[in-house]
Amino acid sequence: MLVIKGRVFPVLTIVPHTFETKTITPARREFDSYPELEQFVRYSIDPIVLPGVTTHFGFDWMGNIGHSLFDALYPAYVALIRFPPRHVRPFRILATLRECDGCRDEEIVNRFAGVGLLKQYVLNDMSIGNWFVFDELVMGCGLLCQRCTRPNLQLPGGVELDASRLFRDRMYAQHGVIPPLRRPRSSREGRNTHDVLRAYIIENKRFNDMDRKEIKAAIDEVNNYTLTYESQNITNLTKLNWPLINAKILDFGVRPQKKQQSRFNKTITDVRPPTYELTETQYTAQLRLFRTIDIHVTGPGTGQMYQTFLPDGSVNINLGGLQESRREHGNISFTTYMEQYMTSGAPYLKGLYYPINERPNGIKREQVVRLIREAAKMIMDGFSIPVNPIENLATDGKLYIEMCEKDKEFCSLTTDRAEGVPFGCYHFWVDEVIHERGAWRSQRKPDGTIKSDCPFNRTLLYELRKKYDIHHYDTLETKENITNISENV
Prior knowledge:
Elements: E1 2-4, E2 29-31, H1 34-45, E3 48-58, H2 65-81, E4 91-96, H3 104-113, E5 114-119, H4 120-126, E6 132-138, H5 163-174, E7 197-202, H6 209-231, E8 245-250, H7 282-290, E9 295-298, H8 302-305, E10 314-318, E11 321-324, E12 333-336, H9 340-344, E13 349-353, H10 365-381, H11 395-406, H12 408-415, H13 430-434, E14 442-444, E15 450-452, H14 458-467, H15 482-488
Parallel strand pairs: 1-2, 3-4, 3-6, 4-5, 7-8, 7-9, 9-10, 10-13
Antiparallel strand pairs: 11-12, 14-15
């Protein structure tokens, strides 16, 4: 920063990286007067000026679309939202990332920004012997990522800044796709009683062969009901037991449908192919499909990240996955929903969850049918928008919020990302806390005391597990030792 002596600035300490706690403070070069500063800039260094707004993020996982979108691009965009109207205008991205030849994520980021993607390793190389000046630079997004846990277990900024919807709408607009229909008050807006709702079950690596068989049976049952009524040409006066639904399995193998070729070739002065802004990409085709989905069904992981792009008044069904407990205690598994904060952070959606105590038994047809029909009935009955974020959480998510309210030290441990705190204490899934796995596991020391990397009030946890009826297998201590555990920790 080039400044004049005597200027008072606030503390400009920044967290630039979403997975680190370290901070940086911009260096300053002071000048005795403005004419001296101007002389230096205009004649001494004569920089290349990068006009407009640039936002910065640091990220290591480019190549994984879920992380690229919500641990890198989303936090940087939320930072921009705090300086309106910059978030609605084209901007440039300066990204600290590794070289990734062929990463399609870069194309998505580039289109989203509008001005382009500037890679910092390129800037560093070009800065040898050259000066560059940014017109406006927005930095600092370290606590806004999707894995940056908040006490309310919401995607940061998703509700209070309407960031989820703004992010969604900009993504559609910058890819040349008309955004989904707005439904500001109710999921029924713009719908007719006998509309056929679209349900897509997204393929997920956490489904096993038996799960897939049950899901296929559920799809057949739902679709056969719809086909029966459509074949009979039932009138709008007919009272249906369930809304009509067309269910399909989707594996993201969506291909562009628009024309891809042109008879015009790139000229020697073209920076990009002449069809760049006119060509539909695979991601664009996915967006076109997603804006039509009424019921989105999948398990944890990348598939859940796409729910943010669903239309207002849609329902997201999280079928959950299984997480193995400690191997020394046999094949005991517990349910993990993982990205439920994405659902609570999108108040234009409604979230439903596979029963937490039933999921370890595998996915069953009747439960999938029940969830899809429940979702369809919610949509057609008309659930209110915005949705209360707490209603969009699973039972273990609600337990975490109550833990945060009643145990402030635990809440600070999991949300502050303070230096010196073990990484696993703030980079975790809720189920790992509730089932005392990984860094939350307690171990008996030789002297009989209990050690844990992330200490917290275990007595409170056991009380809340009982309150929320979350089944748990005590694999370390008997109930008689619970009091001793909490006292020693």
